[in-house]
């Protein structure tokens, strides 16, 4: 439906949801990770709810956000709360970027120089023009920021009658800066220190809520709420043998059972530990025919993972590092696995575990941060430093078919407790509470 034909209930909640992160995915598929999936699914569900006059903003790179929105049939009719002048300038920049992208040897991503030029140009435009169309900031309104490393725009802060919402994912850069580097730590610290006691924060887990309240003493605990995430509806068990064979062939996975892990290759994901445990398991089984599949883009300080693979002598052909995996291939990769292994040291939620559970796959995870909250009693949780326990868990699932089937059933039943519809409803209830409190 064309935008000009949209009609909204005048009594509906006026909500401006920032989708900047979705625009980033237009230029580089490597941005399509956990936060991208969260924002995409929340935005889609909010479009389905009655009682919300929804608009999209993009405090960063609005031209890209516009391009993303037009690719989504459910989102295309949603108005943009972006000044026309800023959108035009950003769209012109976006056209130049598209031309450069077509010349790029990899259509999924831009050259570093081109990307940096685009970001700097957009930042300059942002200093000259406001990020939000003033007519969209009605009284009362909700402004919901989903970007973890950016402060709330001054324009929003200066407008009376606007309730500020922020989605909090995790505090990894602050609690474990050695995992991500100081640049992200400084940016997140500035963003969190800019929050006010009147702001509302939606945390993706109780673990994140506890970490946030411990760090930010000025927040009102009554306004720091939990809205659990969910997996996309595309994550369902794939029983089609041709599809399972297709993805196995595409990612060069050898015949036989395989253990699967999905995450960015970064220190806190603890992939080197998984490799060492897999090697330990192989030492205990002379004719092990299982493989280990590590999927995900390279992140920060990933070299130790490849060091661990080199040290697992004789297993190099059984340990497959796929790199970035297209979303369309993930359900089959999950479904074909004997078990999903996720030994992260710290997670705000651990969405890949839930995706695996939706596919009916046994999950072996660490017992830290939010993992017990998500998995409950439907998986195996062990210390992220216990190689023997991980090796024994993998062996048990591999050779005990009855136990494996029981874990599959428990995992799927547990996954039914999470849905994006529920998350969106809880988010709307928080919006309503904010409006009632003004």
- What is the CATH domain class of the largest domain? Alpha Beta
Which residues sit in consecutive blocks of at least 5 with pLDDT less than 50? 1-9
Rg measurement, Å: 23 Å
Mean pLDDT: 89
Query: How many domain regions?
Result: 2
Q: Please identify the structural class as seen in this structure.
A: alpha/beta
Helix content bin: 40-55%
User: How many strands, what sense, and barrel or not for the largest sheet?
Assistant: 6 strands, parallel
Share of residues in strands? 5-15%
Distance between the termini: 34 Å
Tally of contiguous helical segments: 19
Which outline best applies? globular
Strand order of the largest sheet: 2-1-3-4-5-6
CATH architecture heading of the largest domain: 3-Layer(aba) Sandwich
How would you describe what is shown here?
There is one protein chain. The chain is α/β, with parallel strands linked by helices and 438 residues long. The protein folds into two domains: 3-230 and 420-437, 3-Layer(aba) Sandwich (Rossmann fold), CATH 3.40.50; 241-415, 3-Layer(aba) Sandwich (Rossmann fold), CATH 3.40.50.2000. The protein is 46% helix and 13% strand. The chain is built from 19 helices and twelve strands.
